[in-house]
Amino acid sequence: AQGASPRIEGCERFLSVGKGRGIKATTHFKVGDLVFACPAYSYVLTVNERGCHCEFCFTRKDALSKCGKCKQAYYCNVECQKGDWPMHKLECSAMCSYGENWCPSETVRLVARIILKQKFQTEKTQSERLLSLKEFEAHLDKTDNEKNEMNLADTAALRHFYSQHLDIPNNDALVQLFAQVNCNGFTIEDEELSHLGSAVFPDVALMNHSCSPNVIVTYKNTVAEVRAVREISPGEELFNSYIDLLYPTEDRNERLRDSYFFTCDCEECTTKSKDKAKMEIRQNLCTVPEPEEIQEMVRYAKNIIEEFRRAKHYKNILPCSFILVGICELSLEKMGSIFEETNVYMLHMMYQAMGVCLYMQDWEEAIKYGEKLVKPYSVHYPPYSLNVASMYLKLGRLYLGLQKKPQGVKTLKKAIAIMNVAFGQDHHYITEIKKEMEEQE
Question: Which residues are in the SET domain (predicted)?
């Protein structure tokens, strides 16, 4: 019908009261149902995964073949190499020219590919059945000086690395495109939530945010899949989560305002029902801490988190790992004077410590942290959370690696129970985990 809302099977675009455009269901979805799938409009494999994943289809396998020219990109076979060539040729010659000086950020690489695609892709793609990329919000009127400077640095880097190989739009259009990608882009992650690359999925970007979401987004190679994690009735809006939901309401909204320029008014943010458990204070203290003391400790925790994030840029330097472990232990000791171990700031630091232990291959210590994390995660996160599944998965694989087979298999089964809903029972990640378990029997 003329003027009808854009729709795909099972859902359609609509105007959501107080939120602008969004997506609502037109049929009933059960928990675990695939609501819709969206191929990436454009995507790029992260540099750190080169040689482990195919540049074109993101398949993870051994013995990939490298590009004969740049010797940087790896592929499953000739078909994948040919499939990627329209995009890879943009970088291939430039990587050869710049050598070790080739260092555009992942966002710059992604935007360059979008510009190239827009040159030859005039029709709407299968990624834009509900929302076209050109309709993305940029929120340039709301960006602060720091974000504006980052945008300008990105535009300068794109001109520097790509000007000989790409017809670059004028500066205003370029700044707009970077802002659109920063607000609407996605990071593709694997089953353990390791970063694989960046992409734009326009139809997925149309969904609004909730801290109590009814759908989850997972990835099958370069396709985003949206699955129901609650019962969804016809007419009900689809809500995804844009952020890590571990933290209390104030922190979540701070992150949403900073990155997406809105404050969430979902039921969880209105009732703050999980905040008390997330901010658990130690029970056996002689005197109850004053609110100012708690706030001071939260500020300390946030500063440590930021310090840790900066230090991780140097994780390839081994001595730094010992420094990071030390930072974690000291901060846990200090925060533990007020916070319970289940407090989300304690959990954040344990997660960082576990990551460093994994990097240092200190498996026993990594397990100790993982065991402390997994139960509180199950309480703080919503049902069918990827954060909980990935923690069970890491722990299960660690147990198996240390020949603790019964524990390993039991823990991996808990991961699979969540992943069956989040990824779908036929996902290759689940097949791989089941194979790991069979090899132990």
Answer: 9-243
